[in-house]
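# step 3/5: fold
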Amino acid sequence: MIDKLSLTTSIVPYLDYLESHGRVTVDEYNMKLYKFIYEFKRMVIFCYPHKFSESINARIPFTKIDISTKNFECFNELEAHLSALFNMTELDLTNFNVSRIDIAADIENITPEKLLSTMNVKHIRTESFNVFKSTIYAGTDPKVRIYNKVKEIRARKKKGKEITEYEKTLLDSGKEWTRFEIQIRSVKKNLQEIADDPLSLASYFDRLEFIKTDVDEAHGILQFIYRFINRKFRKQIEEFKDNDLIERIKDTYRSNVTEWVREKEPF
């Protein structure tokens, strides 16, 4: 699934709509990049760059949109909301550049604690790997996050925040669910390209490596010891890799995102 999405565009949104439907905050002191911030239930719109000099501000996209895509039933519904924001019946999605996209997959009956003893994340610096409150963080861009999704949903629910129907099904299942999430900022794609081929993003999950094990608890962290293993012996480790788990993650992402972008009525 696509969990979060940030878009930038030079197009000026329909300001009357933003003023009447969103909660506006104005940055009067040039502390933030954008002067106007319009908060909606499912997205936040930033307008009018003003932090730097006039020449620098002119090079920054006029509009930035942070979207919580999990709150949209399908891509068509998201597209319909963007059309309303910009007062356009025919929206050209190539005009919206993707500045951030988070892809995710939830896998049942596995815990982050067990993964610690078996996982390695390729192409990252050792100092960018850390664990905080049972959440695994790795890398910067792309940034990997692995955490107990059920625990995270319960924490939000306890604070009185709304959860989606999908999140309710995870809670009602009574199972453990681990979220494998990758945040990508160097996307270099526009929204139309994402809509046309969201499956290509599944390759980002190939950064994850796991070793097959029957151990139920974490007895060490492969990420830190892997760099000390001789390259000759790394090749021998290949036969012990748990490629099935990677394929489960990628297949789950592909299945969910394919359903989300499928042509449907937006409302």
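# step 4/5: annotate
The chain has ten helices and twelve strands.
# step 5/5: archive (pending)
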